[in-house]
Design brief:
Structural class: mainly alpha
Number of strands: 4
Pfam family, one: DEDD_Tnp_IS110
Largest sheet: 2 strands, antiparallel
Strand order of the largest sheet: 1-2
Distance between the termini: 68 Å
Protein name: IS110 family transposase
Keywords: Coiled coil
Helix content: 55-70%
Shape: globular
Number of helices: 17
Number of domains: 4
GO molecular function: DNA binding; transposase activity
Strand content: under 5%
Organism: Mycolicibacterium pulveris (Mycobacterium pulveris)
């Protein structure tokens, strides 16, 4: 089948439901298509030749991938429409009457501006131009608030689905609902689609490509593959570069060794691709933190006491207890300390 995740999805699922083995083939080579032309019979012959040669075959993605893709498309559409509405508001205020422009210039953030425009009363003005501009801005502000609610709801649905499908991937440092969903969509929730870790790196555009010339010996990232998956790896790398102590230490060592930040980012993305491949192909159980808060409350221990003992902020302990932050080392030490504190207190 060609296009098992698009126009061929229906017949692919029907074949699989009836126990018929189906494989996905790549579209015909563009140069061959230009030479031979295009028609359904020609495409069918090309697909048959590809199957007989065993070239460019893949296992179709399962239905869970389609569910994630639908939610992710809706969320990204809401974010794109929200950004467009914000830009439209700012454009309208640039050419608005001076009174409106000066009044709304004092808001320090876009969020405050949107809230103020959503509560404004256009009928309180006498100038017809000001009334029209405020009506338009109020409609856009209400649209933004609606899209923000959609974003939160869709993100919660994506988070629930990704956590159910692959809790280890979702719990990895720097992997949020959006990035986890994109990696699952790219790889497919059926892990046997990926032949090797190197193949996944090439698929995600994180494979090192030689770019040497003369006495210069270097590599660059692949510009092929799924660019959305590459963007997910990039965001994970940026988050770890900013907040993960181990990654920051690694970056410091590489900078001392004379590597550029671009080369370090390439190495990080390749290492993250290796880690993500393990999570995608061999999902493992993760530590459950749900026992920490009831145990602490049963011991009558405050968050401030725990935070002071471990040298972190109380909010970090609260997020750890609610499963919003993953730190297995801190959780294990916290659990041991709670039991020891109870024994000492007794």
């Amino acid at each position: 089948m060609e296009g098992t995740s698009s126009y061929g999805a229906g017949i692919t699922h029907a074949l699989q439901d009836n126990g018929i083995h189906a494989v996905e083939v790549n579209r015909p080579d563009r140069s061959a298509r230009r030479r031979q032309g295009k028609s359904d019979p020609l495409d069918a012959y090309s697909a048959a030749r590809a199957v007989l040669a065993g070239h460019g075959l893949a296992v179709p993605k399962d239905a869970h991938t389609g569910a994630l893709k639908a939610l992710l498309i809706a969320r990204r559409g809401a974010i794109k429409a929200r950004t467009a509405a914000i830009n439209q508001i700012k454009d309208l205020l640039v050419t608005a009457p001076a009174e409106l422009r000066e009044r709304h210039r004092r808001y320090p953030t876009t969020l405050r501006l949107v809230e103020a425009l959503g509560r404004c009363r256009p009928s309180a003005h006498d100038d017809p131009t000001a009334v029209s501009v405020l009506i338009a801005c109020k409609a856009l502000a209400q649209r933004i608030e609606f899209l923000e609610r959609q974003d939160r709801e869709l993100t919660a649905e994506i988070d629930t689905l990704t956590t159910t499908l692959n809790p280890a991937l979702r719990a990895a440092y720097g992997v949020g609902p959006d990035t986890a969903a994109q990696l699952l969509i790219t790889a497919g929730t059926n892990a046997h689609r990926l032949r090797s870790e190197a193949a996944f790196a090439m698929l995600a555009g994180a494979a090192p490509i030689p770019a040497s010339s003369g006495k210069t010996s270097r590599h660059r990232l692949s510009r092929g593959g799924d660019r959305a998956a590459n963007n997910a790896l990039h965001r994970i790398a940026v988050v770890r570069w900013s907040h993960d102590p181990r990654t920051r230490d690694y970056v410091a060592r590489q900078l001392t060794a004379g590597r550029s930040k671009k080369d370090i980012l390439r190495l990080l993305k390749r290492a993250i691709a290796r880690e993500m491949f393990k999570h995608l192909t061999a999902p493992c159980p993760i530590d459950d933190y749900s026992d920490l808060r009831p145990t602490r409350q049963a011991r009558n221990i405050t968050l401030a006491t725990v935070a002071e003992h471990f040298g972190v902020w109380p909010n970090d302990i609260s997020r750890l207890e609610r499963g919003l932050r993953r730190d297995d080392n801190l959780a294990a030490a916290y659990r041991t300390w709670l039991n020891t504190h109870y024994i000492d207190a007794a």
